[in-house]
Specification:
signal; binds 2-acetamido-2-deoxy-beta-D-glucopyranose; Immunoglobulin-like; hydrolase; TIM Barrel; alpha/beta; Jelly Rolls
């Protein structure tokens, strides 16, 4: 039982009649004279590896395509590969490697007395989807260790694991070829596969090829990619990310920057021809092909209209080892080279390399992040931050440098103008901390919430990370985000993290998007991000503040002449809210996402919670807009 508030003055003088234990409706007066610009970078995306690149965002379909970082002559070196019809397959260290960076090859020996087709196949990453609607690009290198008179055809295509062909093409193979030669074909599958238990295969007529030995290297299979980029990203995952219209894309991570000094992410090992990329054992224990490299990250950022936030390795590895101050020089030079690759003129070696890869114009790079969560080694960050920012800003005064430690712990100099703050907490922590930035000084220092997520719930406090975002958690994030919008004069960006979860090999949860071979699953937190990002607005308007201990949160922005109100109710009971706007409005839409606290969108139930849009028409144009807020909900009202 709540009595309606009564409007005495259209510009905000309101009297509440409160009866007994009933509470008054919330009235939000929008101040027409107090507003600030919302940065276009406000809602962005952070990329973390966590099994999300190879077999995920990166569209390559073959697992272990180039036998990178494996031990030759072991069974483990054959991960992903199978013999078909009795061919002998083995990974060797080739005396004449396909490139200095890829020492290993698949050696295939064809025994006598076999019939039909014989060769080898790859099972893909956790299965291989074969789609008759798509044309795939397949390629590999081969050479004969010893010249022979063999002349025959490789049959390149798809089959089920039980041997049913799903379609193939042929390419001529010559035994005279003792140096590496590339074969490239396009294959459109002819038969529909019942499931993902399929191989991409390279097979030969058993009679003709009997007795031959052939080495293979850098085998690759791509479906059509996002924007049809060569060596590009997976269409459905990229489309989902783009749906969020990220204002920035932060890469290469995160922990992906490196577990040890030797295995750190180095830009120059991730660019250029695939034969020039040695790969690397990443932070999650498996080999990264680095096919998704610096150029691909920059290209993807550009393709989705996101401003890149590029991390550079800052002399600290995750295992805790730091480079000593006196030895930092070469690492800073590597960061300079990395930045030149992104923005340097073609008069620089690195800028020229970018041009030869098809992008002579500089990428629109503004932000450089110095390391990741460097508070983990705060003592050495003092000199690492000083040295990196001093030298980099001498070279690139136009760029902004982001510090990755908690503000003032340790005290670093020069005083950072940009901080990256990370938070992995509970729903109630996020709701309370929607006021976190309200008390910060407006002195020119800017903040990035480069990683945040509700990872545990309030009720159980199990301290086990949630497997998938829950509605309750997502609404905690939404409440927090209303505070980031209010403070977007000093908060220039924010990203949920981690972004991608390969459900066949989950590493770190919860995630914004989950995916398997066939599908992408949009979480409740994904929809929160999407609703905020696609309704960001250009101007933030000050309005009555939410109650810090309360359950109702809001923010008001304006996009051209449309008013955009975001309303979050973290309580399990409905509420009412009345906005008093500076101008009369009449019609628009309301988009509502609601459900039960523990609701999650999962592969088993992917669309349990999703935003629903309806039109909103007032009987007469009015400055006053009352909205009945559903329990546990996020609403975006757009009204003109
Ligand atoms: C990458 O650059 C570093 C130094 O900046 C160098 O030591 C290394 O050999 C380079 N690696 C490749 C594969 O070019
Ligand atoms: C701005 O204020 C923050 C505290 O809100 C402080 O940490 C920072 O050093 C100040 N920056 C400048 C440039 O004064
Ligand atoms: C919201 O307002 C309506 C209309 O006055 C009223 O019937 C309803 O009880 C109110 N709901 C809450 C939760 O206050």
């Amino acid at each position: 039982m709540v009595q309606r508030s009564r409007l005495l003055d259209a510009l905000g003088l309101v009297v509440f009649f409160i009866a007994g234990a009933c509470r008054a409706d919330t009235t939000v007066a929008v101040n027409p004279t107090s507003h600030h610009t919302v940065p276009t970078t406000l809602w962005g995306q952070t990329y973390e590896e966590v099994n999300s690149g190879d077999g995920g965002l990166y569209a390559e379909l073959l697992q272990n395509r180039a036998f990178q970082k494996v031990t030759p002559n072991t069974q483990e070196a054959l991960v992903g590969w199978h013999s078909i019809n009795g061919a002998n397959i083995n990974v060797i260290a080739d005396p004449i490697p396909v490139s200095p960076f890829l020492p290993n090859a698949l050696q295939v020996t064809f025994p006598p007395n076999r019939f039909g087709l014989i060769g080898f196949g790859n099972e893909g990453f956790y299965g291989l989807k074969v789609d008759t609607a798509l044309t795939y690009k397949a390629s590999f290198y081969y050479r004969f260790p010893t010249a022979t008179s063999y002349r025959g055809n490789a049959v390149i295509g798809f089959q089920t694991v039980s041997g049913l062909s799903l379609g193939s093409v042929t390419a001529p193979i010559s035994g005279a070829q003792t140096t590496w030669t590339q074969v490239s074909v396009s294959v459109t599958p002819a038969q529909v596969a019942f499931n993902n238990n399929n191989y991409f295969n390279v097979v030969f007529d058993a009679g003709a090829v009997a007795g031959q030995t052939i080495n293979f290297a850098m085998l690759s299979l791509f479906p059509p990619t996002y924007r049809n980029r060569a060596n590009g990203v997976r269409l459905d995952i990229a489309t989902a990310i783009a749906e969020n219209r990220p204002g920035f894309f932060r890469f290469p991570g995160g922990k992906n920057l490196g577990t040890t000094i030797d295995t750190r992410w180095q830009w120059n090992t991730t660019v250029g021809a695939l034969l020039d990329r040695p790969g690397r054992v990443g932070a999650w224990g498996y080999t990264n092909t680095d096919g998704l490299g610096l150029f691909e990250f920059l290209q993807f950022s550009e393709d989705i209209g996101a401003s890149p936030i590029m991390g550079v390795w800052s002399g600290l590895a995750l295992d805790g080892s730091s480079i000593e101050e006196k030895d930092l020089g070469p690492y800073i030079q590597q960061a300079i080279d990395q930045i030149n690759f992104a923005i340097g003129p073609t008069s620089t070696v690195q800028g020229m390399l970018r041009a030869t890869l098809g992008h002579s114009a500089p990428f629109p790079l503004t932000y450089i992040e110095i390391g990741n969560e460097d508070l983990l080694s705060s003592d050495t960050y003092v000199y690492r931050w000083r040295y990196f920012t001093t030298v980099l800003s001498q070279n690139f005064p136009q760029l902004r440098y982001i510090a990755t430690s908690n503000a003032n712990d340790p005290v670093v100099a020069p005083d950072p103008t940009h901080w990256d703050v990370h938070a992995y907490k509970t729903p109630s922590w996020f709701a309370k901390n929607s006021f976190f930035y309200d008390s910060f000084q407006r002195n020119g220092t800017l903040y990035l919430e480069g990683e945040y997520a509700v990872v545990d719930n309030d009720i159980q406090a199990t301290h086990d990370r949630l497997l998938y975002p829950t509605l309750q958690g997502s609404l905690g994030e939404a409440a927090f985000m209303t505070g980031l919008e209010r403070n977007s004069d000093i908060v220039f960006g924010a990203a949920y993290s981690p972004l991608l979860n390969n459900v066949a090999n989950t590493q770190w949860t919860p995630n914004l998007l989950s995916f398997d071979v066939n599908n992408v699953y949009r979480s409740t937190s994904f929809y929160v991000q999407k609703l905020f990002a696609t309704n960001r607005g250009q101007l933030y308007y000050s309005s009555t503040l939410p109650n810090p201990g309360g359950t109702l949160f809001w923010s008001v922005t304006q996009e051209s002449s449309t008013w955009v109100m975001k309303i979050v109710n973290t309580a399990d009971s409905p509420d009412n809210i009345t906005f008093l706007l500076p101008v009369a409005v009449r019609q628009g839409t309301s988009t509502v996402m609601k459900g039960a606290a523990t609701d999650s969108n999962t592969p088993a139930n992917p669309n349990l919670v999703a935003p629903v849009i309806s039109s909103l028409v007032l009987s007469v144009a009015s400055k006053q807009l009352t909205y009945a807020v559903p329990s546990l909900s996020l609403t975006v009202i757009r009204i003109t």
